[in-house]
Write a structure and sequence with these properties.
Elements (H helix, E strand, L loop, with lengths): L2 E5 L24 H11 L3 E8 L1 H4 L5 H17 L6 E5 L21 H9 L8 E4 L2 H9 L3 E5 L16 E3 L2 H12 L1
Parallel strand pairs: 1-2, 1-4, 2-3, 4-5, 5-6
Bound molecules: magnesium ion and zinc ion (ZN).
């Protein structure tokens, strides 16, 4: 089995400019690159998998093609820095979305659908894997998938208290979160 660090995208890796999708809006969160590099350095057997809610698609702010173009750009920039991302999963749905995207799905975090699919696709050992994000919905999705979860105080800084989980570790940023994982796994 494999080990993974599942990471939210907006507000955790890149700054969330609000429905982020334009290539020129790609800007990294504080210590995000340092955190990802630390995974490669200290946790080289961990796969990095991005798990992202993209309700902007459901709401018509941008389409799936624009989302994938942004992802291609993000992954290319990271690759150039020596940071390989194994895979990414996105939820394009929202309860107040348009057309086929309007639904109460099981993939929008805090639901664990995307993570469960990734666990199956990549044969992930949940007992050794982590979920990291800037919203309690990320933490709750991780808990729902039986991962150990970490909230980072970048981006949304856990503003969605309706999803609050008592047991989570709270980190300053992605680098701090990875330092916690390095300590926790030993
Ligand atoms: Mg986020
Ligand atoms: Zn969904």
């Amino acid at each position: 089995m494999n080990k993974a660090i599942f990471i939210d995208r907006d507000g955790t890796i890149n700054k969330d400019s609000g429905y982020t999708h334009k290539l020129e809006d790609l800007e990294f969160e504080d210590n995000a690159i340092e955190g990802l590099k630390l995974i490669k350095e200290k946790l080289p057997f961990y796969k990095i998998i991005i798990i992202t809610n993209q309700a902007g698609i459901a709401k018509g702010h941008y389409d799936e093609n624009a989302f994938h173009s942004f992802m291609d750009h993000l992954l290319e920039v990271l690759e150039r820095k020596g940071i390989g991302i194994e895979d990414y999963y996105f939820c394009p749905h929202h309860e107040k979305g348009l057309g086929d995207y309007k639904k109460a799905c099981d993939c929008r975090k805090p639901n664990p659908g995307m993570i469960l699919k990734a666990i199956k696709d990549h044969d992930i050992d949940t007992s050794k894997s982590y979920m990291i994000g800037d919203k309690w919905a990320d933490v709750k999705a991780g808990d729902n998938a039986e991962l150990r979860s970490i909230l980072v105080m970048t981006g949304d800084k856990g503003n969605d208290i309706e999803n609050k989980v008592e047991s989570a570790f709270i980190a300053k940023d992605l680098k701090d979160a990875i330092e916690y994982v390095v300590r926790d796994k030993n």
